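Example record for the data management plan.
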Amino acid sequence: MKPAVVSFCMFFLITGFGFAEKTVAPPELTKESVEADFPSGGLIRMHIRSGELRIVGSDESKIRVHYSGKNVYKSGDVKVSLKTTGSAAELKVDGGPRNDFQIEVRVPRNSNLYLRMPFGEVVIDRLVGDKDVELHAGELTLGIGQPEDYFRVDTSVYTGDLDTGPFGVEKGGLFRSFEERGNGKYRLHAHVGAGELTLRK
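Corresponding structural encoding:
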């Protein structure tokens, strides 16, 4: 089977939107942006611009990227690139308004996630699989499911608060970290340079 490659680039203008493949009225485009078929159990690598981000696991075998916010019509551009090859996917989001702009990404519930983001507020929920997440500064809230599902856990903040939730450890200050070894099948790595890192079920 030939690899499926989906690549989208969207440009937001004050009066409307330009779309490489088809033209969609602005109200519809802000509700639904980019999607691609993707199998359960794959690896999704994400490099996302600073801002508000929510990643949610779903029962669909698809990756869906949705964006919204009151500044979505302001001058500037958002570039969304989504490429899938077999059980691997790469998502990049760049550009766009600096404030009042939210991104939501829905992925198959059983997915391995790799995420890198400069600054912002990130929530990850209902994902089952390996998690490798780093944020330079901001707030990261990571739903991990059951602690016993992991064979290795390492979390850290350079400065700020670390709350490991289900593991029962809270720390604050400089160079805080927590590590755990278990008998599960998944690995969890989470790091915030400056800010807050919270684990929850």
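Summary line stored alongside the record: The helical segments are 26-31.
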